[in-house]
Request: fold
Amino acid sequence: MNPGENSVLAVLKGGLIVSCQASKGEPLCKPEIIGALCQSALSGGARALRLEGLSNISFVRKLTSHLNVPIIGITKTEGLTKDQALDQVYITATLKDAIDVAKAGADIVALDATLRPRPDKLSLAETIEKIHQETRALVWADTATIEEAHQAQKAGADIVSTTLYGYTRETELPSDAKPSFEFLERCIHELDVPVILEGRVWEPEQVERAIKLGAHAVVVGSAITRPHLITERFARATQTN
Reply:
């Protein structure tokens, strides 16, 4: 797909996407607070938003209805431990989840595109085909390896991202690991669809580097919208002795 032929992809090109998410039980996990985070991100220059949860997607869609702001929507399977999440598909895990995300107002449905088995037994290609048939949403494939990135493109994904690198059993990394620019470069050079850097981006320099390498856009989440994680980084700096 040529990004110039699609207005959503054109808006994303060369820009910052801010992931505004809060896990269940966190103080910020309320649609109106997620909405305020989104408005703050947009006022700072975000081109698009990545949101989790149907109520949040729906709320922010209404909040930004007067703006040309693409929403990338996901759901997450609740109740998984970090270790379980290394082996299981949990981001928009089923076709039903994907359809629901689109109906809630997402312009783009992001989903796990790893090689792990999907809970509803559909293949990735079947899932993407049905999303395209039943909604107007684009499909964004979260991947962890170059093999998965190629598979996602072959399966019909409109966008491929590096989101799950470091978060699967095969690629597991410590929480303070940096983005894999090697993985990003391979995706950019070997794929024909837009490639997004997402995951472990904490510094503006990393965003700049990704765009210069040819990334279609960059997603930043925790470094902007997860205050408890930001606080932890500074708190650790007081414990050097």
Observations:
- The beta strands are 15-20, 48-52, 71-74, 108-112, 138-142, 159-161, 195-198, 217-220.
- The radius of gyration is 17 Å.
